[in-house]
Design goal:
Order of helices and strands: EEEHEEEEHHHEHEHEEH
Structural class: alpha/beta
Radius of gyration: 18 Å
Keywords: ATP-binding, Nucleotide-binding, Transport
Organism: Cecembia calidifontis
Protein name: Molybdate transport system ATP-binding protein
Bound molecules: adenosine-5'-triphosphate
CATH topology: Rossmann fold
GO molecular function: ATP binding; ATP hydrolysis activity
InterPro entries: AAA+_ATPase, ABC_SmlMolc_Importer, ABC_transporter-like_ATP-bd, ABC_transporter-like_CS, P-loop_NTPase
Shape: globular
Amino acid sequence: MIQLDLKKKLFGADGQIQLQVNTIIQSKELLTLYGPSGAGKTSIIRMLSGLMSPEQGKIIVNGKTWFDSEKKINLRTQDRSIGIVFQEYSLFPNMTVFENLKFALPKGDSQDLIEEMLETIGLQNLKDKKPNWLSGGQKQRVALARALVRKPSILLLDEPLSALDTAMRNKLQEDILAFHRRFELTTIMVSHDYHEVKKMSDRVLLIENGIIANEGNPEEVFKD
Ligand SMILES: Nc1ncnc2c1ncn2[C@@H]1O[C@H](COP(=O)(O)OP(=O)(O)OP(=O)(O)O)[C@@H](O)[C@H]1O
């Protein structure tokens, strides 16, 4: 279970907004953050990952405090049990697919997990290729597998599919759902795509102007 209580002033092109988000995310839930551009969705992902600090608030994950402004606790990104995939492909261009995954593997862990990941994403035959040999969808599959090599409990996805065409998007949505279930992850995904949010979410947070404007399952949130 993730207890989130986040407050931070955000400065954007259209002035300042006060981000204020308070919610509980259940273990194994697939939660999407949906809403207009600039509303604060990416900032929430960044605060969860430790790449941005809230001004005030708490992040408590399964009873462990990751962030507490009063107690001055702020765990480093590498000490948080997370895997992240961003919109842009963030693979190392000079390493092969296999080496990209191996780089993320904790020292001493068996490389069998890499083989298992490659099999799950169906890219075993491309494991010796460098990223520029791959299609956008294949790169994002590798990024997804790499995010999971450390066996995190939480998967954070910031619009990972927005650069892909519809067919590839559909495939990757299935891959994300398969990983989400297989590794019993708690997954938090930013998406602009209404169909994607409807298809994938257990629960949606509609984020507008830095606050939760509505929340519930997709039927509840999109009933109008
Ligand atoms: N470190 C920061 N401190 C203060 N404000 C920031 C910081 N980083 C980003 N912002 C601002 O916060 C606002 C919200 O941005 P954010 O990327 O979280 O929105 P978003 O909902 O993810 O938008 P999009 O859908 O376009 O990605 C933006 O106006 C941005 O300029």
